[in-house]
Amino acid sequence: MARKDTAADAANPGRLKQIALTYKMTRKADKKIGLVLAAVGIVTFGVFLAIGFLIGHPIYLGILGFLLAFLATAIVFGRRAERAAFGQMEGQPGAAAAVLDNIGRGWTTTPAVAMNRSQDVVHRAVGKAGIVLVAEGNPNRVKSLLAAEKKKMNRIVADVPVHDLIVGTGEGQVELKKLRTTMLKLPRVLTGPQVTTTNDRLRALGDLMSNMPLPKGPMPKGMRLPKGGPKAR
């Protein structure tokens, strides 16, 4: 018991520090976050306390109001913090990959399965919805990347549905903040064993970096890598 209490006490300061850091980061993008959270907490608590006086139970309703005010404040803080984080990530290279890494259980993600010299990139996620190719970069350029990668997927795993998404704010594109929700809404057509089999077949392909034709052994002196990075397949 003593060890568990010690571990819990050590974890609490870390959590509080993380919450404080999240608040500071959110406040940089959302200047009104403090006023909003205070208003949500005070209004929620005030409403329940007023109801308590009206029905003759101010103590009980006051306690309930305090708990619900804390819960409401936490929910609002979480949503605004998430919105601020996505706002800061929007348009940054690799933002889609960061979202895919946190999509949740049941998904296996592989970043940068295809890339061009302009650093437009396609990421791959495999789950019960099938294969999802997520592209970020110039919409006109990534279409050819997506088409080539989708053709390769259909050739290797023809029995698995392949979806393609382009992250952006234009017509027909998916906003970064809606990427996770959009993927989770895709119909589930594969079973767990089928997902495992699909991953095993795709794992043989490797990712973009593992497929680069680098020479074995130490790099010769004076040798330079080609400019622009690897080409998409």
Q: By helix and strand content, what is the structural category?
A: alpha+beta
Strand order of the largest sheet: 1-2-3-4
Give the helix tally: 7
Low-confidence stretches: 6-10, 207-233
* Overall 3D form: elongated
State the end-to-end CA separation.
Answer: 57 Å
**Relative helix content:** 40-55%
Rg, nearest Å: 24 Å
Main beta sheet: strand number and arrangement? 4 strands, mixed
Strand content: 5-15%
Q: Tally of extended strands?
A: 4
Mean pLDDT: 78
Give me the strand/helix succession. HHHHEEEHEHH
InterPro entries: DUF4191 (IPR025445)
Keywords: Membrane, Transmembrane, Transmembrane helix
Protein name: Membrane protein
Give an overview of the whole structure:
By secondary structure, the protein is an alpha+beta fold. Helix content is 54%, strand content 12%. It has seven helices and four strands. A four-stranded mixed sheet has the order 1-2-3-4, with helices on both faces. α1 packs across α3 (58-89) and α2 (33-55) runs antiparallel to α3. Residues 210-233 are annotated as: Disordered. This is Membrane protein. The chain crosses the membrane at residues 33-53, 59-78.
Layout of helices and strands, plus pairs?
Layout lengths: L1 H28 L3 H23 L2 H32 L5 H7 L6 E8 L5 E7 L2 E7 L2 H18 L5 E6 L11 H6 L7 H12 L30
Parallel strand pairs: 3-4
Antiparallel strand pairs: 1-2, 2-3
Helix pairs in contact: 1-3, 2-3
Organism: Streptomyces aurantiogriseus
Keywords: Membrane, Transmembrane, Transmembrane helix
Pfam family, one: DUF4191
